[in-house]
Amino acid sequence: MRDYSFKCEKTCPVAGAARILSGKWNAVLIYKLFQHDVCRFSDFATSFENLSPRMLALKLAELEAANIISKKVYPVIPPKTEYRLTAFGETLKPVIDAMAAWGKYNNHVQDKNRLESASLLPHNDES
Q: pLDDT of 103-116, one tens digit each?
């Protein structure tokens, strides 16, 4: 995982959390694991159409290296791999829940702003 310290002191708690949750995919992958206790690679791949298999593998490896998720490979053909949150990863639940709540609120605000903007547009009143 890259070190994005944002010129923060090494003890900066926000920088530490940002290293784990930053980027486009880490938080949503963790969120999916909170929704489903166990996910296979294909579960992630079908849930996120814009996430390439290469990027998915990279992000899962980063989360595994950070001890957020664990990976279990079954010795079968075709290969079966399962991912789940570790006990340490479970500690992110309040953070992910807060992000989800804020995201829902933000969606509501954006929808309201779009409706208000649309109502300000001139209407064609041909009656």
A: 999 988 888 888 87
And the tokens for 13? 């708690």
Tokens (6 digits) for 48: 């996120």
CB 84 within 8 A of CB 33: yes
d(CA 46, CA 64): 20
φ, ψ at 14 (rounded to 5°): -70, -40
Smallest CA-to-CA distance from 64 within 81, 77, 80, 42 is with 81
pLDDT digits (tens, 9 = 90+) for 69-88: 999 999 999 889 999 999 99
Q: How many CA atoms does the CB half-sphere of 118 hold within 13 Å? A: 6
Task: Tell me the C-alpha distance between 11 and 8, whole Å.
Answer: 8
For residue 127, pLDDT over 90 is answered with: no
